[in-house]
Design brief:
The complex is a heterodimer of chains A (about 280) and B (about 450). With about 280 residues, chain A is an alpha/beta fold. Chain A is about 35% helix and about 15% strand. Chain A has a six-stranded mixed sheet, with helices on both faces. By secondary structure, chain B is of the alpha/beta class. Chain B has helices spanning about 15-25, 30-35, 40-55, 60, 70-80, 80-85, 95-100, 105-110, 115-125, 130-135, 170-180, 195-215, 225-235, 250-255, 260-275, 290-295, 305-315, 335-355, 370-385, 410-420, 425-435, 435-440, and strands spanning about 5, 10-15, 145, 150, 155-160, 185-190, 220, 240-245, 285, 320-325, 360, 390, 395-400, 405, 445. In chain B, strands 7-6-5-12-11-10-9-8 form an eight-stranded parallel sheet. A two-stranded antiparallel sheet of chain B has the order 1-2. A two-stranded antiparallel ribbon of chain B has the order 3-4. The radius of gyration of chain B is 22 Å and the shape is globular. The chains are: A alpha/beta (about 280), B alpha/beta (about 450). At the A-B interface, strand 1 and helix 1 of A face helix 2, helix 11, helix 12, helix 16 and strand 14 of B. Chain B: It comes from Siccirubricoccus deserti. Chain B: GO terms for molecular function: cobalamin binding; ethanolamine ammonia-lyase activity.
């Protein structure tokens, strides 16, 4: 599917449980079991070579051994803390310098409101809309905390540092970066429309899993305006250490931006024109 | 026609049936988000009292979504069996609750074709968790493909070996891990990371080869879109079960890219393959409260009523497996462990009452207010309620979908404390190859050679 995947927290498709972009985070993929004789038992723990999933955890009765249980608890604790982390805008501003930064917030007053009312996270605070400058025809970056501020804090500066020069070299004018608190993907539509941007890329924290708690997603929308649907966006997912690199994501964003301008569209139409990428490792 | 009820000196008015049903629904975030929830606890109980006094037959007369705009409503009305409905026709919704608590297994089975989903949803709203467990535990729905699911005293596990890259080795390793821990009798079913046809074909071939080489009496499934499964069948791929996510309105199904006609086409194609050895239940459906609202396809109805309507879609195609993915859809629909727990038991109850082989994906996401303790409680409650199957994911951590479901270990726990066993054919297979002794020793049994699953 071409719409943002469920980890943006803006999922509209409800049950479509697939994921477009996948992490590439396993080490030692070239390893393998020695060819066993079929009547020779093999150690259960050898299965760990083939997957990052929690296989071969052993058993304590029917339950998890203590160490495996606490490993899980630690991973969940980190994911929960990541969901409830807050964006440090001063630190982010310093990290993206010399790019200039504008601060806004959605209508979700706090984390609880953000989680319960996705509609408020898609709407800009009235006062903030009035204060936005116009930047007609520009390429606009909106950096939003989404479901994981810590992921944005860690990944967004490197992505901006890689992407902005590429876009400028391609002749695009890059608007001041807008940093949005308690923001969802569609908040970029309202900000982009208010500023008159040609295109908006929303850099947003993805819902943390137990293995990746610092992942960034990018959602590109041509001619942003309120009412755009997820089918009108393109997504780059899983930008993090161990996932897609900032440099690779910047190249991908440049490719998508160029294709969007040629086609006059983002979303389904653009996806169809994209060259296929290999789905399985060679 | 409207409904009125006084509580505490205040008179509450409910303009129509769908509003009455929504206001009577125990609190959940999705109904608040949709703007259909009761505003106060008193309004909610007023709606519950008014609903309890409503004749059950009224639900045949006043539909929540007009048949002119919704093929699911038309299906529900077309399929209603008046003769099966006769034993409860004269009851109110409140009287129906009492009837259910006293009914036996045979009476419940005979009633199923006479029930509209809205009737199950209505009575559900005036039932406590205990009632939902007690009635569901009396329902029995048995289905067959290569084994027998839903028998009394049995609890099956879907082995869910998802891999973020659809890497056949990652899938195979998770399959072996699950088999070693007693999972896989419900189905060995992969959610592919990609909807790509070539990936689907490769995964289908892998799962079928593993099942065949280890001679496992079970079925496999790649949970891809129904159109991709149709394409795979055209290409001669080994499709045991056809999967699809479904919802309770024509519009939400359209957002999933399906219609009743398309599901019928897929059902007929899967039946024509004649791959089942013990039976011909060839469909696998997933549902979940909140999907219609998330697709803006809810027609002002509450999410639990719409969930029950999705079971009318499911039962049209005699599925082997149906499960709600209860905690997956997110905290804007079910906020915390309490809401997820109640919804999981509601979905299981309504599905069983309507004659479906219900399982539940006992699960949560990291932005919901829930944790492993909540899952333990819901899993145990569902086990007592006689759930046909639950999920088995390595270590409860789905590394592809990034959410937490029940683990293989959780399945072992539930079977042990509840005195349940795997599906009989699968249990015999496990005993035959010595799984319990091998896993106790930290080994794979000789007959589960990893090389046969492509791990070398």
């Amino acid at each position: 599917m071409t719409v943002p995947d469920d980890r943006s927290g803006d999922r509209r498709g409800g049950l479509n449980r697939s994921r477009q972009n996948a992490p590439d985070d396993r080490g030692g993929g070239g390893g393998g079991l020695n060819r066993p004789r079929q009547d020779m038992p093999v150690a259960w723990s050898d299965l760990r070579r083939f997957t990052a999933a929690r296989v071969a955890l052993g058993r304590a009765g029917n339950g998890l051994p203590t160490a495996a249980h606490l490993d899980f608890q630690e991973a969940h604790a980190k994911a929960r803390d990541a969901v409830h982390s807050a964006l440090d805008v001063d630190a982010l501003t310093a990290a993206v310098a010399p790019l200039s930064v504008l601060r806004v917030a959605s209508q979700a007053a706090d984390r609880r409101a953000f989680l319960l009312r996705p509609d408020l996270g898609r709407r800009l605070r009235e006062a903030d809309r009035a204060a936005l400058p116009v930047a007609p025809g520009s390429f606009l970056f909106v950096v939003a905390d989404g479901l994981c501020a810590s992921g944005v804090q860690q990944q967004a500066p490197a992505l901006l540092a890689a992407a902005v020069p590429l876009l400028q070299r391609a002749g695009l004018e890059v608007a001041p970066v807008v940093v949005a608190a308690q923001g969802r993907v569609a908040l970029g539509d309202e900000i982009g429309a208010a500023m008159g941007a040609a295109m908006v890329a929303v850099l947003i924290g993805e819902r943390p899993g137990l293995t990746a708690t610092d992942s960034l997603g990018v959602y590109l929308t041509l001619a942003p305006r309120p009412g755009r649907t997820d089918a009108e966006r393109n997504c780059i997912s899983n930008i993090r250490a161990g996932g897609m690199s900032a440099a690779a994501a910047a190249e991908k964003l440049l490719w998508l931006a160029g294709a969007a301008l040629r086609l006059g569209a983002t979303g389904v139409a653009l996806k169809d024109a994209q060259p296929a990428t290999p789905l399985l490792p060679r | 026609m409207g409904f009125a009820q006084a509580v505490g000196g205040t008179r509450y008015l409910f303009p129509d049936l769908k509003t009455l049903l929504a206001r009577a629904t125990p609190l959940r975030s999705g109904d608040v988000l949709a703007g259909v929830a009761a505003e106060t606890a008193a309004e909610r109980v007023a709606a519950q009292r008014a609903l309890a006094d409503l004749p059950l037959a009224h639900l045949l007369a006043e539909v929540v979504i007009p048949p002119e705009v919704d093929e699911v409503t038309r299906l529900i009305l077309d399929r209603h069996d008046a003769a099966a409905f006769a034993p409860v026709r004269s009851l109110t919704v409140g009287g129906f609750r009492d009837w259910l608590l006293s009914a036996d297994t045979a009476a419940l089975a005979a009633l199923a074709p006479g029930l509209m989903p809205e009737m199950a949803a209505a009575v559900c709203k005036i039932m406590r968790l205990q009632d939902l467990v007690a009635v569901a535990a009396k329902c029995r729905v048995v289905t067959r493909f290569r084994n027998t699911l839903g028998l009394p005293g049995r609890l099956a596990i879907r082995l869910q070996p998802n891999d973020p890259l659809d890497d056949p080795r990652g899938v195979a390793a998770a399959v072996l891990d699950g088999l070693l821990l007693g999972a896989g009798d419900a189905v060995i079913g992969v959610n592919p990371a990609s909807d790509n046809i070539e990936t689907t074909l490769r995964l289908l071939e892998l799962l079928d080869a593993v099942r065949d080489r280890y001679a496992i009496p079970t079925q496999s499934c790649v949970l891809t879109h129904v159109t991709t499964s149709l394409l795979a069948m055209e290409r001669g791929a080994p499709v045991d079960l056809v999967f699809q996510s479904i919802g309770g309105t024509e519009a939400v199904n359209r957002s999933f890219g399906v219609s009743l006609a398309l599901l019928r086409e897929a059902h007929e194609a899967a039946l024509a393959l004649r791959r089942g050895t013990l039976g011909s239940n060839v469909m696998y459906f997933e549902t979940g409260q909140g999907s219609a609202l998330s697709a803006e396809a809810h027609h002002g109805c509450d999410q639990q009523t719409l969930e029950a309507r999705s079971y009318a879609v499911a039962r049209e195609y005699a599925p082997l497996l149906v499960n709600s993915v209860v905690g997956f859809i997110g905290p804007e629909y079910l906020f915390d462990g309490k809401q997820i727990t109640r919804a999981g038991l509601e979905d299981h109850f309504c599905g069983k009452l309507l004659g479906l082989p219900m399982g539940v994906d006992v699960c949560y996401t990291n932005h919901a207010e829930a944790d492993q303790d909540d899952m333990d409680a819901l899993l145990t409650l569902l086990g007592v309620a006689g759930v046909n199957y639950v999920m088995g994911v390595p270590g409860a951590d789905d590394v592809m979908l990034a959410y937490q479901s029940t683990s293989f270990h959780d399945g072992l726990y539930a079977r042990a404390v509840l005195g349940k066993r795997p599906a009989p054919e699968f249990e015999a297979w496990m005993q035959g190859i010595g799984i319990e002794a091998a896993s106790g020793a930290g080994l794979l049994p000789g007959r589960l050679a990893p090389a046969l699953a492509g791990l070398e």
